[in-house]
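Customer escalation, tier 2.

The customer says the design service returned an amino acid string that "doesn't look like it belongs to this structure." They asked us to rerun it and document both sides in this ticket. The original structure tokens are below, unchanged.
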């Protein structure tokens, strides 16, 4: 039985908390014209720092899956599970949004647009899992030089895609393997970081500096553009933005290097992390129900962001965890969370 890597579990634990933080702070950042600049900057800092979470989820998947040799049937079962989750939660959010939130949705667009925006993650992940067996074979046949060439190609593609999008242009054809989004590239980065982590010759302080520098620059640029335009500017917070890529990768590398990649935790701590991580996917799926309820009855100006952001994040996290914990006790619970 393969030993669980708690560096990865720590990344997962931090990341799913950050995802909730992103969605909470977004509510306040997008209310820029209605809240004070202090509240906006507080929300923006937490939002920007937390942007590493989604890249980390894709990198974790790549690190765990791309190096495997497994039967095609195994990947089919994994893919089926994600499809089942997507169908179940699409139904939940369809009825929730249409009949409770009074948000119209045309079911004919289900293949192109999620019933709830945060389900985009499944729309991005499922296509990657569809081709995962072929990626696994490709990775096994690549030399170190080929790995470097792939990283160079992927980096160039990511830069091109992002800057062309700023110009409201798009490539005539998608880049093969990478596609028209950066998520597959994150998948491969996670694999390469895991594969070459013993050869990454950077001190922890150098990695911390890279993370802080890229994140700080992103905060400054986003705040500057927001103040200049008079409205919250989100383009620098996109996951394809080079600054977010640098922050995400450096954060991932940093946590993977703690204790030489084999962090040792006390048994009690391991049990709690195992419990939290087993519920992390479900927490991601369900937490919007609680956040949207808050948005339905509370405006950003009703409670200061200084209070609402931390309290709401903790409350949503706790409520989501309790719900998912008991859902997973049901016979079918693990299949939908």
């Amino acid at each position: 039985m393969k030993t669980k890597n708690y560096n990865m579990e720590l990344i997962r634990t931090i990341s799913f908390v950050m995802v909730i933080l992103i969605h909470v702070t977004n509510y306040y950042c997008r209310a820029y014209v209605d809240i004070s600049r202090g509240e906006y900057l507080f929300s923006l800092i937490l939002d920007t720092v937390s942007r590493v979470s989604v890249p980390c989820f894709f990198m974790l998947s790549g690190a765990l899956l791309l190096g495997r040799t497994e039967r095609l049937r195994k990947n089919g079962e994994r893919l089926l599970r994600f499809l089942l989750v997507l169908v179940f939660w699409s139904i939940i959010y369809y009825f929730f949004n249409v009949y409770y939130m009074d948000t119209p949705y045309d079911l004919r667009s289900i293949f192109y647009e999620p019933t709830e925006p945060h389900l985009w993650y499944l729309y991005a992940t499922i296509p990657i899992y569809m081709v995962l067996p072929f990626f696994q074979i490709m990775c096994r046949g690549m030399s170190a030089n080929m790995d470097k060439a792939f990283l160079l190609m992927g980096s160039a593609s990511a830069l091109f895609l992002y800057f062309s999008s700023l110009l409201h242009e798009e490539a005539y054809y998608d880049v093969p393997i990478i596609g028209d989004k950066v998520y597959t590239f994150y998948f491969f980065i996670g694999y390469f970081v895991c594969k070459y982590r013993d050869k990454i010759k950077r001190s922890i302080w150098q990695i911390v500096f890279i993370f802080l520098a890229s994140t700080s620059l992103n905060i400054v640029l986003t705040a500057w553009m927001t103040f200049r335009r008079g409205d919250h500017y989100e383009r620098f917070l996109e996951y394809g933005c080079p600054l977010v890529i640098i922050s995400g990768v450096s954060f991932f590398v940093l946590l993977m290097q703690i204790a030489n990649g084999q962090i040792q935790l006390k048994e009690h701590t391991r049990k709690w992390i195992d419990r939290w991580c087993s519920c992390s996917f479900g927490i991601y799926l369900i937490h919007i129900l609680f956040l949207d309820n808050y948005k339905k009855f509370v405006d950003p100006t009703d409670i200061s962001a200084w209070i609402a952001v931390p309290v709401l994040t903790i409350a949503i996290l706790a409520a989501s965890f309790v719900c998912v914990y008991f859902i997973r006790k049901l016979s079918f619970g693990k299949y939908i969370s």
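Tier 2 assessment: The sequence is consistent with the input. The two ends are 24 Å apart (CA to CA). The first helix runs from residue 6 to 29. Sent an explanation to the customer and offered a walkthrough call.
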